[in-house]
């Protein structure tokens, strides 16, 4: 039984003198899973999880057998339970033996995922989710490859060789050989089109790709994902690219971070999966996701060592990319990536340039198809220099990034002559040439006119993109998320702007409606001013404590609202929604009622004691009204929520549009429901408390006005302060353009930058085409 397994696990862990955190580091099983198993919240642990825990605890045969028996449901049936435990133990042992035999024979072992939970329904649900995820990933990266023009006219040759032995684990570990079996190195050399086969030739399923800046690591990961998916069997995990530069291993475990990123880029995986966890968590925990971790070198200096230690604490199959120096430094501080085979990308040759660059230009002379602007340059590069060293331009053009930049600046613009790159007085070294190509990339692509696109001033573009690059550098992440654009501001500034704009919007709405109901412009302006200031203050405080103090982001919604038909609802927790809504509404209503009652009493020249009494009575009254209305409204909203589909196309624009639709439907639904609940609730609460709190008066017109203003004001305040789309409108569409940091049409600008090849899409976020471009723009902005 799961409860018995938890008790046995806790006793053996305490016997070994380990905390849950220490067991997590040794086993690779997340501390939340360990805690859930020990408390009985997680039942039916997977055999691979049990084996990982047993290995980490270094259990002897008796204790190991006891742990395995406790993991088998129905064990109390006597001999049947013992037989099931023995079968489970034999299953684990046979899997390990088969893997070792395959490695010993030198076979190219196919990466097999961890064994999923035993229930057929659970296996079927996980398998179906994995297949849907595979289709979504393949469609996304196929579009991205076309957008990046990788096949135009053909992919630049990316080759690699085996990396240094000092960065390589023991070959016996890489080949998964049992003790005493002779081992030797694998032949890992290859080309871009064979990257999937190279990975499959590694029995451990762990590959490290090393290459200097711009050497083609990101393109290689993209090609690996597409090739692996094209030949993938249902038993194999789905390769998914994760930008590891955004991971803080000191704050969140690897599995939890992978789950968060998978949910962000594939919102449909937030739907409930087997075992009362999300589909994303189930896919990661069951080994059905193959993490392709791109950009280890982009992590902050102090995080690479703990990141490598965390990766070594897991048994996940993975692909990791990094620049050699950063990876070597992390290895020197801790150890190599366990069981990982490292390869290192090699430079492009002059022959590669001869074959590629001339084919990227227009034919200048139809009678001589080989003639072009690059031929004289390439011919000059082959001439030996006086000191025998390669020309600076040859060194620069040895990486795919610089070749792509050179193609953009010179091949795609016939008025530019690449012969100027040979001017040693203007470009005496490699650094000057690289900076020239980086600095001219933006002016070149923005001089081009795209069909249906608006024109942008190149100087303003430099400033806007510089702000974004600096914003990412300060956040220490390569991911440009539209819902985090406001994080370039200080937390206090962000909260202040949120409170002021919310106060202005709600004040204008209240003033207009109060004037319409009461017929007095002065009264409407006064009421709107008071309500606006109170609402701005209270919603600002809610935003401050919810996000600024905790450091959390306002995330886009992972659900949509379905008005017609019965929604395929998420696990709706009416109790939690009722508590959160009631407490939030009661807090707002009490503060609002106290201030309004106090001001109303003081306006009648009442004494301090009488004013305080009136404020407290109104605080109780409005606290009950708003608490009940908010709790009811949040519960009803939950009934309409349904998860997004996994196969839905995800891009920054599509996530923004989906979040906008969800928020607007919430606004349209929540305003009348909340307003009606407030209006009707006011009459009910007044009748119930009549006499207990004195003589209470609430006429129908006052109830109608209170409900209408509350419905619109509450919905607008919630939208602006507590939703990702509201924060986007408030900060990215108003404040940042107003201060000159971004254009007014931010979404159009970002999409245009993507179409021009300045940005690339990585799921729900943008990234700069390359870290070098981002770094250069950020430095120039400073």
Number of helices: 29
Number of strands: 11
Spatial order of strands in the largest sheet: 2-1-7-3-6-5-4
Tell me, briefly, the overall form. globular
* SS class: alpha/beta
Rounded to the nearest angstrom, the radius of gyration is 31 Å
Question: What is this entry, summarized?
Answer:
By secondary structure, the protein is an alpha/beta fold.
Question: Which properties best describe this structure?
Answer:
single chain, 782 residues, alpha/beta, two-stranded antiparallel ribbon, 29 helices, 11 strands
Would you kindly provide a written description of the structure presented here, covering whatever features stand out?
With 782 residues, this protein is of the alpha/beta class. It is 58% helix and 6% strand. The chain has helices at 2-15, 20-27, 31-39, 47-57, 61-71, 79-104, 120-147, 171-174, 195-200, 217-230, 254-265, 279-285, 304-312, 324-333, 350-356, 374-381, 392-396, 400-411, 430-447, 458-475, 491-518, 521-548, 574-603, 608-640, 652-689, 700-722, 724-738, 746-755, 771-781, and strands at residues 159-162, 190-191, 206-210, 238-243, 289-294, 318-322, 341-345, 559-561, 641-643, 759-762, 765-768. It has a 7-stranded mixed beta sheet, sandwiched between helices. The chain has a two-stranded antiparallel sheet with strand order 8-9. The protein is globular, with a radius of gyration of 31 Å.
């Amino acid at each position: 039984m799961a409860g018995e397994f938890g008790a046995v696990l806790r006793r053996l862990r305490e016997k070994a003198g380990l905390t849950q955190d220490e067991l997590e580091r040794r086993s690779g099983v997340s501390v939340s899973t360990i805690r859930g198993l020990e408390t009985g919240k997680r039942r039916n642990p997977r055999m691979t999880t049990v084996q990982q825990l047993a290995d980490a605890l270094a259990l002897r045969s008796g204790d190991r057998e006891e742990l395995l028996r406790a993991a088998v449901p129905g064990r109390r049936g006597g001999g049947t339970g013992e037989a099931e435990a023995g079968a489970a133990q034999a299953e684990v042992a046979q899997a390990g033996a088969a893997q070792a035999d395959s490695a010993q024979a030198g076979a190219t072992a196919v990466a097999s995922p961890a064994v999923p939970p035993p229930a057929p329904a659970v296996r079927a649900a996980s398998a179906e989710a994995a297949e849907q995820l595979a289709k979504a990933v393949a469609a996304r990266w196929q579009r991205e490859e076309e957008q990046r023009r990788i096949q135009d006219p053909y992919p630049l040759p990316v080759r690699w060789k085996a990396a240094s032995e000092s960065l390589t684990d023991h070959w016996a570990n890489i080949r998964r050989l049992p003790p005493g079996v002779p081992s030797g190195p694998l032949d890992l050399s290859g080309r871009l089109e064979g990257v999937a086969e190279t990975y499959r030739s590694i029995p451990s399923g762990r590959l490290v790709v090393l290459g200097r800046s711009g050497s083609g690591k990101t393109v290689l990961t993209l090609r690996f994902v597409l090739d692996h998916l094209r030949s993938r069997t249902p038993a194999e995990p789905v390769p998914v690219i994760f930008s590891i530069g955004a991971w803080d291993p000191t704050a969140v475990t690897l599995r939890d971070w992978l789950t968060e990123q998978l949910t962000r880029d594939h919102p449909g995986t937030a739907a409930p999966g087997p075992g009362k966890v999300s589909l994303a968590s189930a896919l990661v925990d069951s080994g059905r996701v193959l993490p392709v971790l791109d950009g280890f070198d982009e992590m902050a200096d102090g995080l690479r060592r703990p990141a490598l230690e965390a990766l070594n604490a897991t048994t996940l199959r993975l692909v990791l990319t990094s620049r050699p120096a950063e990876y070597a430094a992390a290895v020197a501080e801790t150890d190599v990536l366990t069981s990982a085979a490292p390869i290192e990308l090699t430079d492009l040759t002059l022959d590669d340039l001869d074959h590629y660059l001339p084919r990227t230009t227009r034919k200048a002379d139809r009678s001589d198809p080989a003639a072009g602007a690059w031929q004289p340059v390439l011919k000059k590069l082959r001439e030996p220099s006086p000191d025998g060293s390669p020309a600076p331009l040859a060194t620069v053009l040895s990486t795919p990034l610089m070749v792509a930049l050179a193609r953009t600046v010179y091949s795609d613009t016939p008025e530019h002559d690449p012969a100027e790159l040979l001017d040693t007085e203007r470009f005496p070294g490699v650094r000057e040439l690289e900076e020239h190509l980086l600095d001219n990339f933006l002016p070149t692509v923005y001089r081009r006119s795209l069909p249906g696109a608006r024109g942008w001033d190149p100087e303003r573009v430099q400033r806007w993109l510089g702000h974004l690059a600096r914003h990412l550098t300060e956040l220490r992440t390569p991911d440009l998320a539209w819902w985090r654009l406001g994080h370039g501001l200080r937390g206090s500034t962000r909260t202040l702007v949120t409170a002021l704009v919310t106060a202005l919007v709600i004040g204008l709405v209240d003033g207009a409606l109060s004037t319409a109901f009461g017929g007095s412009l002065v009264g409407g302006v006064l009421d709107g001013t008071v309500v606006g200031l109170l609402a701005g203050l209270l919603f600002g405080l809610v935003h401050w404590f919810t996000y600024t103090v905790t450091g959390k982001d306002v995330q886009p919604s992972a659900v949509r609202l379905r008005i017609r038909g019965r929604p395929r609802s998420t696990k709706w927790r009416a109790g939690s929604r009722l508590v959160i809504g009631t407490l939030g509404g009661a807090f707002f209503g009490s503060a609002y009622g106290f201030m309004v009652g106090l001001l109303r009493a003081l306006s009648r020249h009442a004494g301090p004691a009488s004013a305080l009494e009136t404020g407290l009575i109104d605080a109780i009254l409005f606290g009950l009204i708003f608490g009940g209305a908010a709790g009811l409204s949040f519960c009803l909203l939950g009934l309409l929520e349904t998860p997004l589909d996994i196969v839905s196309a995800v891009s920054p624009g599509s996530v923004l549009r989906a979040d906008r639709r969800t928020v607007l439907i919430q606004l349209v639904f929540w305003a009348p429901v909340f307003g009606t609940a407030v209006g009707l609730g006011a009459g009910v609460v007044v009748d119930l408390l009549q006499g207990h709190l004195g003589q209470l008066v609430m006429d129908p017109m006052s109830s109608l006005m209170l409900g209408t203003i509350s419905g619109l004001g509450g919905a607008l305040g919630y939208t602006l302060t507590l939703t990702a789309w509201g924060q986007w409108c408030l900060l990215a569409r108003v404040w940042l353009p107003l201060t000159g940091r971004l254009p007014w049409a931010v979404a159009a600008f970002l999409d245009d930058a993507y179409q021009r090849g300045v940005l690339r899409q990585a799921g729900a976020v943008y990234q700069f085409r390359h870290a070098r471009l981002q770094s250069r723009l950020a430095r120039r902005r400073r």
